[in-house]
Design brief:
- The protein is of the alpha+beta class.
- About 35% of the residues lie in helices and about 20% in strands.
- The chain has four helices and six strands; from the N terminus they run H-E-E-E-H-H-E-E-E-H.
- The strands form two sheets. The protein has a four-stranded mixed beta sheet with strand order 4-3-5-6.
- Strand 5 and strand 6 form a beta hairpin.
- The longest helix has 20 residues.
- The radius of gyration is 25 Å and the shape is elongated.
């Protein structure tokens, strides 16, 4: 068993050495198959987003599950979360901040506050804030947080 572990460790070291010294990883030949080469992993493309100042993530599941059939549903097709999201977009556009910030609906964030909606504010300078807001009464306060992050 000790010999097997030593051999496995030696093979792993050899693989890491080959991987770090070349762009391609070559596996040592086995007794049953010819030498196999694994092609290099291509880099994942990246880009500079237009929403350079931050993201506003609004959980879409909070109002669907908690407020179904209550006054938090604006009409049959629009939930309070969607209305909050549309309101935030309109305010950001009105103040000329749309494009610097992006408001995005997300699926469940796993926090599920009682009678509230989870909103995550992400900014490259401030970092991340997780807020529990009432989609109607707290939206001005939420917007003031977003504007503070812009300064």
């Amino acid at each position: 068993m000790k010999k097997l572990l030593k051999r496995i460790k030696a093979l792993i070291r050899k693989i890491f050495q080959q991987f770090s010294s070349t762009s391609e990883l070559s596996l040592p030949p086995s007794d049953h198959s010819p030498e196999t080469r694994i092609p290099p992993i291509p880099p994942v493309p990246s880009f500079a987003p237009q929403w350079e100042n931050g993201l506003v993530l609004v959980c879409s599941q909070c109002t669907v599950e908690q407020f179904a059939g209550s006054s938090h549903r604006i009409n049959r097709s629009i939930t309070a979360t969607e209305e909050l999201q549309n309101w935030l977009k309109s305010r950001l556009k009105f103040d000329g901040l749309w494009g610097k910030y992006r408001v995005i609906s997300t699926s469940c964030l796993g926090i599920c506050p009682q009678s509230r909606v989870v909103v995550v504010l992400r900014n490259h300078l401030v970092g991340q804030q997780c807020l529990f807001v009432d989609p109607q009464s707290d939206r001005e306060i939420l917007y003031s947080y977003i504007k503070q992050m812009n300064q």
